[in-house]
Amino acid sequence: MRPDPDIQTCCDDTGQPLLRYQQQAGWLQVTMLAESTLPHTQNMMQVFYQVLDKLDPDRVRVDNRQLRGRLSLADSYVLLHSLPLPRRRRRMAVVEDPAWAEQVRFMETAVRNAGGMLRYFYDEEQALQWLLSE
Question: Would you say residue 80 lies in a domain?
Answer without folding.
Answer: yes
